[in-house]
What does this fold into?
Amino acid sequence: GIGACLNLFSNELLKAQDKGVLMKNGDSQFKIVFTLAVSARECIIGIAGNGLITVIHGAEWVRGKRLPVGDCILLILSFSRLLLQIWMMLENTYSLLFWVIYNEQRVYILFKTTVMFLNFSNLWLAAWISIFYCLRIASFTHPWFSVMKRKVMGLVRLPLFFSSCSSFPFSKGIFDVYVNNSVPVPSSSSTEKVYFSETNVGNLVTTLYLGIFIPLIMFMLAATLLIISLKRPTFHMKSNVTGSRDPSMEAHLGAIKAMSYFLIFYILNAAALFLCISSIFAANSSWNILCKIIMAACPAGHSVLLILGNPGLKRAWKRFQHQVHLYL
It folds into this structure.
């Protein structure tokens, strides 16, 4: 249970302190344990949700069935998020418990490059699926929409290409980690290790532009166009319905609500990622920890929304829950 997890984290924290592996930076054990417990729970929910979507659509693809374009993009997105949340659990554990190991230059670059690639893939693929639904559902007649409808699946490699371009600079030293072993502790005769990083601002700006701002703008435009397109017939249906609510109107309202939630999740995720990359807050400050919690929560929350909004996925999720309860 959660109590056992907290005890385990506390024991690991004490062991790390005894071995001198954990950086003594004045943070309370409670903050570290709380962060690990909350982010781990969010990641586990995300792993379960995205894992379910990946298994269901992946099994259809393995059996040789031709997946619709939307399901193909959703399969790639869910698999990317599955890897992201597994890696985030690993990074959070090392960054909060094992500072000395985590801040070795090669280890730090490995963690940062991988987590940035997966985060950028998440943003780009989420923007791409938003564009796909906008093109499929929106009632716009401009010729550009017809061209994009035909090419959207063929261009799905672009998000992965841009994600690679955005994360590659991290492998070449956007951040250089330094350590000062002799910083005096106030009101004490002892010293502590303090880690800090130097940022290559030019590479960082390029990375933020390619990895966050471009997909964010694309997503917001697609989501806004889709919501506007869905609202028009909804208002028309509302004016014509006099008795019970029309099922078609209910479907439109549900789609508007789901897209609005998706938009909120996306903006929060992009903002938290931007703040983390920019190193505005100290590594283990409360604000930085909040950003990490948001980054773990948003992909998990959206996977839950996707499952609840899809009858087939919802039935599979209920069967999965039933099997888990039987096993436990």
In short: The chain is about 80% helix and 5% strand. The mean pLDDT is 75. The domain at 2-327 is CATH 1.20.1070.10 (Rhopdopsin 7-helix transmembrane proteins). The first strand starts at residue 175 and ends at 184.
